[in-house]
Write a structure and sequence with these properties.
The complex is a heterodimer of chains A (261) and B (401). Helix content of chain A is 46%, strand content 14%. With 261 residues, chain A is α/β, with parallel strands linked by helices. In chain A, strands 5-4-3-2-1-9-8-7-6 form a 9-stranded parallel sheet. The longest helix of chain B is centred in the first third of the chain and has 15 residues. Chain B is α/β, with parallel strands linked by helices. Classes of the chains: A alpha/beta (261), B alpha/beta (401).
Chain lengths: 261, 401
């Protein structure tokens, strides 16, 4: 069993929580997410040009970079997290350029050493898989792909090929942290995806409240929350961990008590 | 030609978020169909002739040639010719591409246009074609560039465009491009993104190059008619590189024609204050393509600097990256100061006020001409006129206007 298959084999849907590395007290923030009940952690790698992200995560990227956060820092946070939490799946999420700066093999090797389970690279579509995918798979790190409302049935097999860990359904055509999609469209999309793959399907983009998370957890294997958590770090800085734990706990209660459809 | 996935050697490709992939694939299909459709080509050519004012003249710069020969050795000093793309409607080569892309947008049934702009020339060209065809237009522009290029901001507003100042980052062209991509990803169903240079995800680098190749095709026919032969050296400035590719591309198979691309060296290549992606950057991925980028050891994108707002982009069209690696095109860089001197030189000798972008090319021409025999021919692209830059130049010269 991988950490992913364990996390998604629980009797309830999984809560996936995102924060940006180097923004606030990263170690304490990560611990707060786990303490609050997060089942999977996504750690954002800051990038100067996060063009698929909305204002909240963009600002977090800038805060982290202004604070001097380097790729080495991100990997150190990952390795320390792995030492403290041996069983919680850890995903690095970010953009291609920082990941491939020293070659895909270098990055995959560093991820493996740090105990990273999966990588989401926003701007490497399946068509450009060779830029990173083969190196990750060679180290047993899951390349986690995104499916979106614009990914039609003809294209979906392309997205699924070489995809691993879980499938991330981006519920709105847009950037992170903005409007939420209609529940009915999410239910339809998840049903379509689950008919096409055995991978767990986690839904994100625009999920902010326990009520929204619970509704999505009725139909999905996982719910991803990012901007709402990142905003807490932005607002509370080093005092964020307790607030993060509170929101995570409320989200976890909502997600974990929802039944899968 | 790029391969089927839009790669020029190791460069190019389609590095975009999944939301945009289906649209980018649609665009490629539509572009292939348009390219093969004589009616599309006819409409494009007609607009270039009657709206843009093409063909642009090819001009022998006699006084500049004589001036440069004064410092050259005996028998040295090449003839300098200019392709006059600054005489196009809206004052730069940018309009060629905008005409092509808005025709594509309408073919695809898109009803809203977005664009990014640095110096404002592409923004003005986009606003112009939107006014011409009656489509709403939103232009993303770095807040710093909005300040530096206020005449162009006013022009765009007169043309009916909405200008969105971008304050993220340092508020320059790359930040405007990020914001345009955010808009596009949120409005994929009705919006067409008119990219201003030969960069971005495939097929943009190819289609922008094709639309701009009118420059080189005309230049080739004109110089053969006037001199009976091809030039020895082509010269063009490079930000993203669309005017250079437009000039170079029709000559790529003519092995006797040398080509020189001129990047912005800003305050010098030895420091960080330049915008020379090829000479001072490393390959990486940004804005949908793999190409040379100004970046640090962690792959974070660093800000370019140039006196010219049109050249301070930290990336470059992927075909240039490939042409550099293959050695077909030679690349050099010109500092702010050298460009400023060349700007004044052309004003004085030819009665032409060039934009600061082609002033970089003129500076490189001035250096090369002296090293070449008098019967050799340099053909440079004068890709934009300098009206927009007079405030920047006055400030640098310490003149209050």
């Amino acid at each position: 069993m991988t950490r992913f298959s364990t996390a998604f084999a629980k009797p309830h849907p999984a809560l996936v929580c995102f924060i940006t590395a180097g923004d606030g007290d990263t170690a304490a923030n990560l611990d707060a997410l786990v303490a609050g009940g997060a089942d999977v952690i996504e750690l954002g790698m800051p990038f100067t040009d996060p063009m698929a992200d909305g204002p909240a995560i963009q600002a977090a990227n800038i805060r982290a970079l202004n604070g001097g956060t380097t790729t080495a820092d991100v990997l150190r946070h990952a390795a320390e997290f792995r030492a403290r939490h041996p069983h919680v799946p850890l995903v690095l999420m970010g953009y291609a350029n920082p990941m491939i700066r020293h070659g895909p093999e270098w990055f995959a090797d560093e991820c493996a050493k740090a105990g990273v389970d999966g990588v989401i690279c926003v701007d490497i579509p399946p068509e450009e898989d060779e830029a990173l995918g083969p190196a990750l798979r060679a180290k047993n790190i899951a390349p986690i792909r995104l499916s979106t409302p614009t990914t039609d049935a003809a294209r979906l097999p392309r997205v699924l090929e070489g995809s691993d860990g879980f499938l991330y359904y981006v519920s709105v055509a847009g950037i992170t942290g903005k409007q939420q999609a209609a529940q009915a469209s999410i239910a339809d999309a998840v049903a379509r995806l689950k008919a096409a793959t055995d991978l767990p399907v986690a839904v994100g983009f625009g999920v902010r409240t326990p009520e929204q998370a619970a509704a999505i957890a009725q139909v999905a294997d996982g719910v991803v929350v990012g901007s709402a958590l990142v905003e807490i770090v932005g607002e509370h800085g080093n005092d964020a961990p307790e607030k993060l734990r509170e929101l995570t706990q409320a989200l976890a209660n909502a997600v974990h008590s929802a039944r899968k459809g | 030609m790029p391969d089927s996935r839009g790669h020029f050697g190791d460069y190019g490709g389609r590095y975009v978020a999944e939301t945009l992939m289906p649209l980018v694939l649609d665009l490629e299909r539509e572009y292939r169909a348009a390219h093969a459709d004589p009616a599309f080509q006819e409409q494009f050519d007609g607009l270039l002739e009657h709206y843009v004012g093409r063909p642009s003249p090819l001009y022998y710069a006699e006084r500049l040639t004589e001036e440069l020969r004064k410092d050259a050795g005996a028998g040295m000093g090449a003839q300098v010719w200019f392709k006059r793309d600054e005489l196009n409607h809206t004052g730069a080569h940018k309009i060629n591409n905008c005409i092509g892309q808005i025709l594509l947008a309408m073919r695809m049934g898109k009803t809203r246009i977005i664009a990014e702009t640095g110096a404002g020339q592409h923004g003005v060209a986009t606003a112009t074609v939107c006014a011409r065809f009656g489509l709403p237009c939103v232009v993303y522009m770095g807040a710093e560039d909005v300040r530096r290029q206020s005449p162009n901001v006013f022009r765009m507003k007169l043309l009916g465009a909405e200008i969105v100042p971008v304050t993220a980052g340092r508020g320059t062209l790359k930040d405007a491009m990020n914001e345009a991509l955010r808009d596009w990803v949120a409005n994929v169903s009705d919006t067409f993104y008119i990219i201003g240079t030969a960069a971005g995800p495939h097929p943009y680098p190819e289609l922008v190059r094709d639309f701009q190749s009118v420059i080189g095709k005309e230049a080739k026919a004109q110089i053969e008619l006037r001199t009976g032969r091809l030039p020895d050296l082509l010269v063009a400035c490079i930000g993203g590189g669309s005017n250079a590719l437009g000039l170079f591309h029709p000559f790529l198979d003519d092995s006797d024609v040398g080509m020189l691309g001129v990047e912005a060296a800003g305050h010098g290549l030895d420091g960080d204050e330049h915008a020379a992606s090829l000479l001072g950057g490393h390959p990486g991925v940004l804005h949908g393509n793999r190409t040379y980028l100004l970046q640090d050891e962690d792959g974070q994108i660093t800000e370019g600097h140039s006196i010219s707002a049109g050249l301070d982009y930290p990336g470059i069209g992927p075909e240039h990256a490939w042409l550099k690696d293959t050695g077909r095109v030679e690349y050099t860089a010109i500092t702010d100061k050298e460009a400023l001197d060349a700007f004044q030189l052309l004003c004085r000798t030819e009665g032409i006020i060039p934009a600061l972008e082609p002033s970089h090319a003129i500076a490189a021409v001035a250096k090369r001409a002296k090293e070449m025999p008098q019967d050799s021919i340099i053909l440079a692209n004068l890709c934009g006129r300098g009206d927009k830059d007079i405030f920047t130049v006055a400030e640098k010269l310490g003149v209050e206007i």
